[in-house]
């Protein structure tokens, strides 16, 4: 055996890239390989049936197949001595537990858990567990399955309730069994019964640093319940369709907030941004109303003034245009406040109506926001009929000039291209630009002459770059043609560049020989 394979760190990297079925073979090589392989195999458990099969053989309970609700049981009941072996060899390896209980299989592993509860020791079942993730129905046998593994060592808990049910008793168990949580995610229904208990739960977790809660109409009680608001660095409201959105978010009490992802209206967030948030670098906002361009402008102004170190801004809208709505289009003048945010690396904007932008606007935006890595501007238009746009493929020239780190570009544009137009644009295109671009999102963009577009993009995009169009794009067939042709044009462009480089090199050699 090579000496490098005896170094645990190197061995862990190598074995970490293998599938579980291969790791089981590696575990039988030697004692060292066995320990490393088992650590990797059981670092995360998502199938308790497979995990408990190491304790004793597990099978389907006789007579339950006909019902369609399979119930798993131990074929041979394990004894306390079996548990001692299982605990010594496997339980301590698990760091992450992911449980998903299907509504139609709520009793699947109940018999397994009942036997484990009977023979286990007084110690936690998974003593080194740090993360727990539950998805299921808290009123259908899920409580027993979920709470059995909770203990004080768990620092991260993610709970997702499938239906609008009262989770009061389950949240009480979290409070008593996992008091040292630093990350809490509650994907539960925002009904009044749950709101009161969420407040009590948050008030009992002194180490909380990251919090995700349902989208209550008023988030103030939850945030004011924090034991130490200064510790919270990430806050998110969990939004589901037809939920209310938050109207009040007291950000002033969260001085070290770094990541904010909420469902609220722009004016509510503007009212919350009253003090300087120097630590805030990520903002995601989802609104469910038609925000006016002036409100978009006001929000951008408030964000830029209060968040000097902002790196990512994502403005989304869960709203479909109605026939009686008056189209209100965002123009460059409404986006101008953003140009003062030189630290911005990602900007996403979604609005029910197409943006009224042209190539000059993109030039102005990119010339100010030179650190951009992602720019996505309303690629999918939900208006009927679909409006026209003034943006063309020439807008990519602005990214090539000003944004060397750009990796994703998303635009709703008119992709018209002819041979003469292509040659004219390429003549002004900076060499070796857009080298980091790997994703070009065209959404529901118009396109004419797909082969000419593919040829043009093949000249400017780097190898491996991909084009993404919307699933229901009206020009889907044309963009799919571009997808199929692009790799050919990319390879052709690479070969052309190689020949040009070889030619330049040969010219330099000849010049040196004749002393030029």
From TrEMBL:
<feature type="domain" description="F-box">
    <location>
        <begin position="8"/>
        <end position="45"/>
    </location>
</feature>
<dbReference type="InterPro" id="IPR036047">
    <property type="entry name" value="F-box-like_dom_sf"/>
</dbReference>
<dbReference type="Pfam" id="PF12937">
    <property type="entry name" value="F-box-like"/>
</dbReference>
<protein>
    <recommendedName>
        <fullName>F-box domain-containing protein</fullName>
    </recommendedName>
</protein>
<dbReference type="InterPro" id="IPR001810">
    <property type="entry name" value="F-box_dom"/>
</dbReference>
<dbReference type="InterPro" id="IPR032675">
    <property type="entry name" value="LRR_dom_sf"/>
</dbReference>
């Amino acid at each position: 055996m090579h000496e490098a394979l005896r170094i645990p760190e190197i061995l862990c990297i190598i074995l970490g890239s293998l599938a579980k079925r291969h790791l089981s073979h590696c575990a039988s090589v030697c004692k060292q390989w066995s320990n490393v392989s088992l650590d990797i195999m059981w670092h995360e458990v998502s199938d308790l049936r497979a995990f408990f099969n190491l304790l004793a053989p597990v099978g389907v309970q006789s007579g339950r197949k006909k019902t369609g609700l399979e119930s798993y049981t131990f074929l041979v009941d394990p004894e306390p001595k079996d548990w001692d072996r299982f605990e010594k060899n496997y339980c301590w390896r698990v760091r992450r537990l992911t449980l998903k209980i299907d509504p139609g299989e709520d009793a699947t592993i109940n018999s397994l858990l009942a036997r484990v509860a009977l023979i286990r020791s007084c110690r936690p079942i998974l003593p080194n567990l740090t993360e727990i993730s539950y998805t299921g129905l808290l009123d259908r046998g899920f409580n027993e399955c979920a709470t059995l593994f909770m203990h004080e060592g768990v620092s991260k808990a993610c709970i997702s309730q499938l239906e609008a049910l009262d989770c009061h008793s389950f949240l009480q168990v979290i409070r008593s069994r996992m008091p040292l949580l630093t990350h809490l995610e509650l994907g539960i229904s925002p009904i009044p019964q749950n709101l009161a208990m969420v407040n009590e739960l948050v008030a009992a977790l002194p180490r909380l640093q990251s919090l995700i809660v349902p989208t209550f109409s008023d988030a103030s009680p939850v945030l004011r319940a924090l034991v130490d608001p200064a510790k919270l660095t990430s806050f998110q409201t969990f939004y589901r369709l037809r939920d209310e959105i938050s109207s009040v978010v007291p950000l002033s009490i969260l001085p070290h907030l770094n990541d904010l992802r909420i469902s609220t209206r722009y004016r509510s967030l503007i009212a919350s941004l009253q003090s300087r948030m120097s630590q805030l670098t990520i903002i995601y906002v989802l609104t469910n109303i038609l925000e006016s361009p002036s409100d978009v402008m006001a929000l951008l102004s408030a964000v830029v003034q209060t968040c000097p170190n902002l790196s990512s801004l994502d403005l989304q809208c869960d709203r479909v245009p109605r026939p009686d709505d008056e189209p209100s289009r965002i123009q460059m003048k409404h986006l101008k406040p953003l140009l003062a945010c030189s630290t911005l690396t990602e900007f996403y904007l979604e609005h029910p109506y197409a943006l009224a932008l042209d190539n000059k606007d993109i030039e102005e935006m990119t010339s100010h926001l030179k650190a951009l890595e992602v720019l996505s501007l309303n690629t999918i238009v939900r208006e009927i009929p679909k409006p026209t746009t003034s943006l063309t493929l020439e807008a990519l020239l602005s990214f090539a000039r000003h944004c060397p780190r750009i990796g994703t570009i998303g635009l709703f544009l008119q992709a018209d291209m002819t041979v003469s137009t292509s040659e004219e644009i390429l003549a002004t295109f900076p060499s070796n630009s857009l080298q980091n671009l790997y994703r070009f999102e065209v959404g529901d963009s118009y396109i004419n002459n797909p082969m000419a577009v593919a040829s043009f993009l093949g000249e400017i995009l780097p190898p491996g770059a991909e084009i993404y169009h919307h699933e229901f794009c009206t020009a889907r067939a044309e963009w799919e043609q571009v997808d199929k042709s692009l790799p050919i044009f990319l390879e052709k462009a690479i070969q052309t560049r190689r020949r040009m480089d070889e030619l330049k090199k040969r010219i330099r050699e000849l010049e040196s020989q004749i002393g030029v």
